[in-house]
Amino acid sequence: MTEIAKRLVSSPVVPLVQTNAPGTACDSTRALAGGGLTIAEVVLRTPAALNCLESIAKTVPETIVGAGTVLTMEQCRDAINAGAKFIVSPGLDDNVVRTAQDDGIPVFPGTATATEVQHALNLGLKTVKFFPAGLAGGTSMLKALASVYREMHFMPTGGISASNLEDYLRLSSVIACGGSWLTPAAAISNGDFAAITKLAREAVAIAKSVRGV
């Protein structure tokens, strides 16, 4: 079992980090770790996202950091060079998947349909992102997909919050849930990192109540 898999067993939640300031990204990641979440996904949605990822990789060793919203093969390479230990995409792109695989980096492409899940399976993947989870059918759709693709595990993201986290984690096919509710923009802009730690602890508590880990 990889270190990422081990951590997801104990804390099956992957928070998204989005900021244009490396220092803030590191503070947010430390706050998440303080609440028990030591895997974080830096989304490539700001001009300095790669700088943020690199800063976390270098200065927050307790956290395994990956890159999210990876859209192209070039972005995938840049993220790996910046220190990403895993790659997440909103959609399924063969070039992104193969670039990560060639480097031995775990990759979780986004899927929303049976066709995409089947394609991912035939690319050699055992875990995929399910996105946007809420709009793509939520837990009902995941149950349907899991009944057919029994070897596949899912990481639903999009529309996940503390209010429905338990529903998703009760599905055995769900390895973890991703979400931005753990790093609210207001808390980050106000420097309220204690609020982020509190949200992380709440998520860990929910996970433990469901899975007993």
Descriptive notes:
The strands form three sheets. Strands 3-2-1-9 form a four-stranded parallel β-sheet, sandwiched between helices. It has a three-stranded parallel β-sheet with strand order 6-7-8. It has helices spanning 3-10, 22-34, 49-59, 73-81, 94-102, 114-122, 138-148, 165-169, 185-189, 193-211; strands spanning 13-17, 39-43, 64-68, 87-88, 107-108, 110-111, 127-130, 153-156, 177-179. With 213 residues, it is an alpha/beta fold. 46% of the residues lie in helices and 15% in strands. Helix 3 (49-59) links the parallel strand 2 and strand 3. The mean pLDDT is 97. The protein has one domain (3-204): TIM Barrel (Alpha-Beta Barrel).
Mean pLDDT score = 97
Strand content: 15-25%
Head-to-tail CA distance between termini: 16 Å
SSE arrangement, N to C:
HEHEHEHEHEEHEHEHEHH
Offer a few descriptive terms:
single chain, 213 residues, alpha/beta, TIM Barrel, four-stranded parallel β-sheet, three-stranded parallel β-sheet, 10 helices
Question: Briefly, what is this?
Answer:
With 213 residues, this protein is α/β, with parallel strands linked by helices.
What's the helix and strand layout?
Elements: H1 3-10, E1 13-17, H2 22-34, E2 39-43, H3 49-59, E3 64-68, H4 73-81, E4 87-88, H5 94-102, E5 107-108, E6 110-111, H6 114-122, E7 127-130, H7 138-148, E8 153-156, H8 165-169, E9 177-179, H9 185-189, H10 193-211
Parallel strand pairs: 1-2, 1-9, 2-3, 4-5, 6-7, 7-8
Helix pairs in contact: 2-3, 2-10, 4-5
